[in-house]
Amino acid sequence: MAGFRSLARQVRDPRCDLALRRYSLRKCLERFAPYGHRATWDHLCSRAGFGPEDRSPDPARLVAALEELEEARSVWLAYEVDFAERRRKEKHDGLRRPGTVDDWHRLTWGGFGVAWCDDPRVHPREPLAEVLRRLISALEREPGSGCPVCGGERLSWKYDLDHEPSAGPVCTHCGILVPRPVLKPEALADARRGRLLVSA
Q: Where are the alpha helices (DSSP H) in the chain?
């Protein structure tokens, strides 16, 4: 099975058939897809200027989409290196029990679904790398009351998400499943109450 870098080489290779280059870009999302596969694909297509169903996109647009994905991946991989180093230090210092950020991180190792968007058409519009920088910054500071990506203050508790965890606070503006560790307990409670009010 090809890795991310070998798939990226195929996307860039002008000797490869255009269909293979597009397919290789889609396969990259099996290795790294911050919003989930379908939402990340929709995001890359809209930012690079080709349709999700376009079978013969301009090769330059495919490469532009790949470059955005690669930049975001490098941001996430750097975070994972820092995270692993921090956990090693904590274990060395006797802190064996992981915290809530560690529990969340375990579910997103490798970068799949770190900013999960259950609706593939609703996702942040900013470049992926910027979204991940904002999310990482929020994970490294005290919890807040809104979305760490867009600053939206309306969070809705959603159930039956196609992700783990399968329920949680979703930003009504940018569509991400907001990681619980970045939210104050009151913000989580407000999101839950909002869900109950909508249902009633």
A: 4-12, 18-28, 37-48, 59-92, 100-107, 128-139, 185-199
CA distance linking residue 109 with residue 145, whole number of Å:
25
What is the DSSP secondary structure assignment for residue 48, as one 8-state letter? H
User: Which phi and psi (to 5°) does residue 59 adopt?
Assistant: -55, -35
- Asked if residue 116 lies in contact with residue 36, where contact means CB atoms within 8 angstroms, the answer is yes
What CA–CA distance (Å, rounded) separates 69 from 129? 8
Q: Which residue's structure tokens are 């975070």?
A: 79
pTM, entire model: 0.89
Cβ atoms of residues 43 and 49 within 8 Å: no
| Closest CA relative to residue 19, chosen from 46, 44, 54 | 54
Per-residue tokens: 37? 């596969």
> What is the bridge-based pairing of β-strands 155-158 and 168-171?
antiparallel
Q: pLDDT tens digits, residue range 55-90?
A: 999 999 999 999 999 999 999 999 989 888 887 887
Under 8 Å between Cβ of 63 and 12: yes
Integer Cα distance of 169 and 159 in angstroms: 9
Peptide bond into 165 cis (omega under 30): yes
Specify whether the CB–CB gap between 191 and 169 falls below 8 A: yes
